[in-house]
Amino acid sequence: MLLLVGFLTASAADPKLTFEAATIKEGDHILNPSCMVGPGTLEYRCWANISGLIESALGLPAYAVQQEKAPLYFIDAKMAKSSSQEQLNAMLLNLLADRFGLTYHTERREVEGYFLAVDPSGVKLAAAAELPGDVTPIVFTVGRPGGARPPVRLGSFDLNGPSRDRLPGDAELIGKAVTMKMLVKFLSSVYQIAVVDETGLTGTYDFVLDYRDPNRPEQMESRWPELWTAVQKQLGMKMTHRKGTIDFLAIDHFEKAPKE
Questions:
Q1: Are residues 106 and 242 in contact, defined by beta-carbon separation less than 8 angstroms?
Q2: What ranges make up the beta strands (E) of 119-260?
Q3: Contact yes or no for 85/154 (Cβ under 8 A)
Q4: What is the three-class DSSP state of 31?
Q5: pLDDT, tens digit, for every residue of 181-229?
Q6: What is the mean pLDDT of the chain?
Q7: Distance CA 177, CA 128 (A)
Q8: Which of 51, 68, 119, 245 is deepest in the core (most CB within 10 A)?
Q9: What's residue 9's pLDDT?
């Protein structure tokens, strides 16, 4: 059995980092929870339950966080244009502690899932192009091949981008300035199972991944291979199914009715 330690490596958030303004409302009617950064990186909006908010604040996949189904919350926050992703995460974590009284701890748990490693044929990723310091990197654009898509900022996904000249089952993942932590979180969300990084790759990378959309009916035609095959052939990484032990975030306390 593989022992995976140090998965939750986020340090305590700087208490001085806070949103310029933030409102929180309950929203149980929300159908598609998500978090996004608005135009110009001045606005942060998140529709999620407490587990989803923690995942967003610490950049964790769902399998590594205790899941609380309800209620859902809508957060609308303003921040400085110069805020980095790390600063955004710290501001959200501080907001959860202040408004929800959130406390948590980590513990070891065994999981069954996929473990991502570099394929013997070698990794096929390009180092990320250097970006100006005041530009928020585009991380993921997900959609159908064959059409221009608006940029999607750090931590966001575009599942319904415009497309043309494609087969119904085709899908495309475009990554810019992507870390392995971001990639395994995406893969975990697709497969709804733990996907753990064993690649040892610590940089940021640009890539395009064409694959058969696993969320489309099997009878829909696609020119591309299944996702795990595409990851191996196009990115040079293989996914192996087995058991392992990870650091798991357990929620000790949070107030369901956040403070104003």
A1: no
A2: 126-127, 140-143, 170-178, 194-197, 205-212, 237-253
A3: yes
A4: coil
A5: 888 888 988 888 889 999 999 988 888 888 888 877 777 888 888 999 9
A6: 77
A7: 5
A8: 51
A9: 42
Q: How many residues does the chain have?
A: 260
Q: How far apart are CA 258 and CA 148, in angstroms?
A: 41
Prediction pTM value:
0.70
**SS3 for 126?**
strand
In whole angstroms, give the CA distance from residue 49 to residue 27.
9
The CB density around residue 4, as the number of other CB atoms within 10 Å, is 17
- Closest to 235 measured CA to CA, from 244, 220, 225: 225
Q: What is the domain partition of the chain in residue ranges?
A: 2-110+245-253, 113-244
CA distance 23 to 260: 8
Cα distances (Å, whole numbers) of residue 218 to 38, 101, 158, 159, 215? 35, 45, 22, 18, 9
* Cβ partners under 8 Å of residue 107, min gap 6: 247, 248, 250
